[in-house]
Amino acid sequence: MSSLSEFAYINICEIHVNITGCDIGFYGENCTKCPDNCLNDDCRFQIGHCFDCIDGFNGDMCEECSFTDYGPNCNTSCSKDCQHGLCNHTTGHCLACAEDRFGNLCENKLPANGGY
């Protein structure tokens, strides 16, 4: 009769294997470059979809956020005080402010008397 040793163990790990022959940052049969906005320039070796995107971009191919959203995965809406709700897709800074507002996020209000 056999028994297991209390000192026996198995160490299992996962590794990234590149079976296409392309360097990291490239995919497919022709080793096409991964989309520019993939985080760490890394994408799925079969079809080129990004694992994750740099801030200001989202989707499988890391397209730019709309002008009304910004940040990681485009999850943050631009300030309501941005003119027309439009801001930079990376920083969230307003492209322009509503008439009585100022600041990067149009967070400041001009005095009613114009400061006089």
TrEMBL record:
It comes from Magallana gigas. This is Laminin EGF-like domain-containing protein. InterPro entries: LE_dom. Residues 50-82 form the Laminin EGF-like domain. It comes from the Eukaryota. The lineage of its organism: Eukaryota, Metazoa, Spiralia, Lophotrochozoa, Mollusca.
